[in-house]
Amino acid sequence: MELLCPAGSMPALKKAVTEGADAVYIGLKDDTNARHFAGLNFTGDKLSKAADYLHQHGKKLHIAINTFAHPDGWRRWQYAVDSAVDNGADTLILADLAVLEYACDTYPQLDLHLSVQASATNTVAINFYQQQFNVSRVVLPRVLSIHQVKQLARQTTVELEVFAYGSLCIMAEGRCYLSSYMTGESPNTAGACSPASFVRWQETEQGLESRLNDVLIDRYKKHENAGYPTLCKGRFEVEGNVYHALEEPTSLNTLDLLPELMQCGISAVKIEGRQRSPAYVEQVTRIWRQAIDACARDSGNFNPQPAWNQGLQAVSEGSQTSLGAYHRKWQ
């Protein structure tokens, strides 16, 4: 099972390698990357150096070109594919049909993975991408239960990758329509939902307030940890009560499911967080490396160590973790 870790910078990439990642996924510094945060990501010499560093350490470089091409911007997506290949990418993570076709036709030997953004949740969809574009792996959306993941693993020969740890998204995998409606910026190409240019923080008599395009998202009491203001994880007044009406701020943590994921043949587990710090990448990679190795040695007696969960909880949203949709009791 491959441990695939995120990096938004060279220091984060080196931490991932040091702590045992098998592969690192990064993005380019433009709107072909769904996470093109200011000050992060790779281009030109930096991209080439990242590839060289990974290859020197026997690791693989995955590059996410995972947004959907604009009608008047096709050349940027085409250039992104060419640039990634020229600078040493081992794998491209793609979602757009046209980008998949271009990469498949132009670089037939290149390893292509279907991005979670494409939302392939059934065998027919997975087989379509394999047959049409020679996709070797599909990243499953975070809406499937562990039972559904196992079913897919039995029904397809395509490699499957699942998210193992990190932020959850209740919308259509990074294409948040709430954020798009509120800001006028599509998360597909704006780099993230809740773009930083629309975020405002203000101290008031009621507490610290976070706003997105002047809409109040949350208000924090003194000494309360303030999260980044995303609409889905804000606190709103509903029928006189103020609470997280859409989703609690929490992070996915599937350590408990690791034996099941391993036994059903999942090829890779992915850590979310290309926008996170090198310290986050270091800690999460170290814990997951230890867990995967322990599970591979003896999956029948595998139990997550309390220190692992404590370490992951310390860097999770709202300091709490969840099994997310993997654990659907009603199914």
From TrEMBL:
The coenzyme or cofactor needed here is: [4Fe-4S] cluster
The answer to whether UniProt assigns keyword Phosphoprotein to this entry is: no
Reading the lineage from the top rank, the first entry is Bacteria
Which segments constitute the PI-PLC Y-box domain? Answer: 298-321
Q: Which InterPro entries does the record associate with it?
A: Peptidase_U32 (IPR001539), PLipase_C_Pinositol-sp_Y (IPR001711), RNA/ubiquinone_mod_enzymes (IPR051454), UbiU (IPR043692)
- Which biological process annotations from GO are given for this protein? intracellular signal transduction; lipid metabolic process; proteolysis; ubiquinone biosynthetic process
Alphabetical UniProt keywords: 4Fe-4S, Hydrolase, Iron, Iron-sulfur, Metal-binding, Protease, Ubiquinone biosynthesis
A Pfam short name: Peptidase_U32
What pathway annotation does it carry?
A: Cofactor biosynthesis; ubiquinone biosynthesis
Coiled coil region boundaries: none
Claim: Metal-binding is one of the keywords in the record: yes
Q: Where does [4Fe-4S] cluster bind?
A: C169, C176, C193, C232
The GO molecular function terms of this record are: 4 iron, 4 sulfur cluster binding; metal ion binding; peptidase activity; phosphatidylinositol-4,5-bisphosphate phospholipase C activity
The family database entries (PANTHER family) matched by this protein are listed as: PEPTIDASE U32 FAMILY (PTHR30217), UBIQUINONE BIOSYNTHESIS PROTEIN UBIU (PTHR30217:SF3)
What does the UniProt function comment say about this protein? Required for O(2)-independent ubiquinone (coenzyme Q) biosynthesis. Together with UbiV, is essential for the C6-hydroxylation reaction in the oxygen-independent ubiquinone biosynthesis pathway.
User: What is said about its interaction partners and assembly?
Assistant: Forms a heterodimer with UbiV.
- Which family, according to UniProt? Belongs to the peptidase U32 family. UbiU subfamily.
Protein's UniProt name? Ubiquinone biosynthesis protein UbiU
What organism does the UniProt record list as the source? Lacimicrobium alkaliphilum
Q: Which gene encodes it?
A: ubiU
